[in-house]
User: What shape does this take?
Amino acid sequence: MRILVAEDERDLNRLITKTLEKEGYGVDSCLNGDDALYYLTNTEYDGAVLDIMMPGKSGLEVLKTLRSQGCTTPIMFLTARDSISDRVTGLDSGADDYLIKPFDFDELLARIRTMTRKRSSHVSSVITIADLSLDTGSHTVTRGGDVIELSAREYSILEYLCMNQGIVLSREKIENHIWNYDYSGGSNVVDVYISYLRKKIDGKYPKKLIHTIWGSGWMIKEES
Assistant: This one.
C-alpha cells in the first residue's frame, strides 16, 4: 500500500516514514500542507497521515479541500491538541481517525491497517484465496498450511494483488502503488517481482493463483 506522511517535525516525519517502509509500505513524505494537498490531488494513495498544525495549509484545510473535490482517501490526523472539541472538529471534517501525540508506533500501524481496511471490501485482517492465506496484521502468508517467506516488497505486491482479487493490475498501477516518488528502478522491476512471487506462491502447487493477462497486467484469482 502507498501512504503519504505530512508532518512538519522533521525527526518525527523521518521516524514515521522509516517505520512504514519497514512494514512494506510505499511512502511519500512532505513537511507542509501545500505539498500534502498537491500529492493527494495528483497521486492515488491508500491512506494519509496528516499533522493538523503545519506550515501553509493546515491539515484541516487540506482535508476540507480534498473532501470538497470528492477525494475519499482515508485520512488520519496527528496532533498534540487533545481536547474533545478538536477531535470532533477533525472527525466532522471527514477524517477517518485521530491520533494524539506522543503515540506508540505499534498503535499507529494498527490504526493505519484498520483505516485502510475499511476502504476495501475486506473486514477481516486475513484475506483467503483458495488455500492461500494472507494476514495483513502480522504480514504472514501461508499456502496449504505452509508458511511462505516473502521480502517486504514481495509481500506488498502480493497484498495489493489480494486486496484486488479478480482485478487486472497493470505494471504502472503496481509501480505507482508500491513505490514512492523517489523510485527510479528499471522498467521490468515489477515483472521480476511477479516472477519471484510466482515461484513462491504457485511454484509447487498444482492450482495456480497468479495470472498474466497479456498486454494488460496481472491478477490473482482462484481457478474455476
In short: The longest helix spans residues 105-119.
